[in-house]
Amino acid sequence: MMQDLLANPAVQGGAAPFVAGLIVAVLLGRYRLGGLAVTAAFATAVYFIAGFGFTPLSATRKIILLGLVAPIAGIVVDFAFRPTRLGSILLAIATAAAAAWVFWPVLSQREFARALLPGAIALLAAAWVVGYSEQRLAGDSVRAAASGLALGAGTGVAAIFGAALTYGLYGVAVAAGSGAFLLVQMITGKRSYAGATFTLSVTVVAILIAAAAMVLAQLPWYSVAVLALVPVAANLPLPAAAALWVQAVLASLYGFVVAGIACVLAWHAGG
Amino acid sequence: MSLKLTASLVAAALPLAATAAPESFTVDPYHSIPYFEVVHLNTSIIRGHFEKISGKMTLDSAAKSGSIELSIPTATLSTGDNDKGSRPRSRDEHLRSPDFFNVAEFPTMTYKGKATKFNGDHPAVIEGELTLLGVTKPLTLTVERWNCGPDPRSQGKRYFCGGNATASFKRSDFGMKFIVGPVSDEVKLWTSVEAFRD
Questions:
Q1: Chain B residues inside the 8 Å CB shell of A162
Q2: Alpha-carbon dihedral of residues A170, A174, A175, A176, nearest 10 degrees?
Q3: Which residues of B125-157 are buried (b: 16+ CB within 10 A; e: fewer)?
Q4: Do B98 and A212 touch (CB under 8 A)?
Q5: Count of CB atoms situated within 10 Å of the CB of A21
Q6: What are the angstrom distances between the C-alpha of A85 and each of A90, A91, A135, A195?
Q7: What's the DSSP call for residue B131?
Q8: Whether pLDDT at B147 is above 70
Q9: What are the chain B neighbours of A220 within 8 Å (beta carbons)?
Q10: Best A165, A208, A219 residue to mutate vs chain B (most B CBs within 10 Å)
Q11: Mean pLDDT of all residues in chain B?
Q12: What pLDDT, on a 0 to 100 scale, did the predictor assign at position B12?
């Protein structure tokens, strides 16, 4: 019975990651590490779906590895450096380099013309999402969490439409972790600390999964480009006087509209 | 007289020598088709096949030895569901994705083996290694039927061999772990192979 439950994809990608994320968000929030909720959620999904084997080091396993390294980098950034524009740019460049490391072995097997567009989109989207989120959202835990919720969910659903259900579950797990981080803030009415610990954990995994669904499955490039605009949507104006939970709902809705467009495009891409 | 006798003996011995030497063969892609099957949701068996294959083979019936190397482009898989209809993607498209064969990253599946048991002149068991998704594991093929002879389509000018072989493996051993359970972990292989002597 329990084994059947844990084998259910909805539990593996949604319920179990959400519970793990909620526990971490509650327990570590006071230490400014509540953003690790996303990593807890993602790691839980990986544990149930694929496990932590890294041989051979495929593109998917590289993404999992980066998903585990990103929060460590985030903690170092948050506790050792002050947030600056240059820092955001450097993180963006580093993520683009990571995307190249992930996808180059696959794209190098193709003709240059067929590799150029997905390769360029993967690198640009990765750099943009990480750089923008770090610069504009890391200091606002509600917007950052709303962006993570919409980006994760949008990536998950779009990846499923792109014939990659595993990536879909990973995307949903990122959404579950972000949702847990956001829910704690909505219930307590207090903002948590997001910082690079949260934004890097979300953005590195989510955008690389979206790019992987494009390079390795059938998610169209323009869906990935639209998904990259989710953080921008979550940064649209909010009523400053409104309750925190209202701001959280509104920011999430902004993100979901853009993520929804990406999903619709993915659904219709098959012709 | 003795020269004639020697020449006759040499001439008579030549075909025997030719038969005893290892012969190399090239796989006929049109009559060599690897099939696979899995159990779906603990009910029906879903079968698929790969539409292309290439390879080489050696055979020395006298010495009871042989080898085979097969290469299969995984993107050519088909389970008869290529039309997505009202769904976002077809089953074959899903099977090509990273959930299963991950054809963009691992476009080729290979098998290299050596015949270790013979049934008379015919290979009966081939022990080798299957490489799938970048993982190499041992896989033993059981040869179900085998025959060699002149190809009637070429009025006997070409010589060929062919037969069927079966095997099974756990897909999770190769890292293909997506929904193991609803789609069986065990994959059964059944392949036809024909090859022309070079």
A1: 88-89, 97
A2: 90
A3: bbebebbbbebeeebbbebeebebeebeeeeee
A4: yes
A5: 32
A6: 9, 10, 6, 14
A7: E
A8: yes
A9: none
A10: A165
A11: 89
A12: 46
- Whether the pLDDT of residue B190 is over 70: the answer is yes
Q: Letter for the amino acid at B116?
A: T
State how far residue A193 is from chain B, nearest Cα, in angstroms: 35
What's at A111, amino acid-wise? E
CB nearest to A270's CB, from B88, B96, B106: B88
Reported pTM: 0.90
Report the residue of chain A nearest B108, measured CA to CA: A109
Tell me the CA distances in angstroms from B98 to A50, A82, A151, B177, one per residue in order.
12, 39, 21, 10
For residue A112, the tally of other CB atoms under 10 A from its CB is 9
Chain B residue with Cα closest to A104: B105
Best interface-test mutation with B: which of A55, A102, A215, A218 has the largest number of B CBs within 10 A?
A: A218
Q: List, for residues B54-74, the tens digit of each pLDDT value.
A: 999 999 988 999 999 999 999
Beta carbons of B93 and A7 less than 8 Å apart: no
Residues of A whose CB is below 8 A from B84: 270
Q: A217 with A159: CB under 8 angstroms?
A: yes
149-208 of A, contacting B, C-beta below 8 A: 160-167
Query: In whole angstroms, what is the distance from residue A43 CA to residue A48 CA?
Result: 9
Give the DSSP letter of residue A233.
Answer: H
> Which residues of A fall within a CB distance of 8 Å from B173?
none
A3: closest chain B residue by CA: B181
C-beta of residue A262 within 8 angstroms of C-beta of residue A153: no
**Whether B137 contacts chain A with CB within 8 A:** no
Residue A43 and residue A3: Cα distance in Å, rounded?
19
Which DSSP string corresponds to A23-46?
A: HHHHHHGGGT-TTHHHHHHHHHHH
- Which one is predicted more confidently, A80 or A93? A93
Q: Tell me: the pLDDT tens digits for A227-257?
A: 999 999 999 999 989 999 999 999 999 999 9
Using the Cβ of B60 and the Cβ atoms of chain A, whether some distance falls under 8 Å is answered with no
Predicted complex ipTM: 0.89
Which is nearest to A233 in space by CA: A95, A130, A137? A137
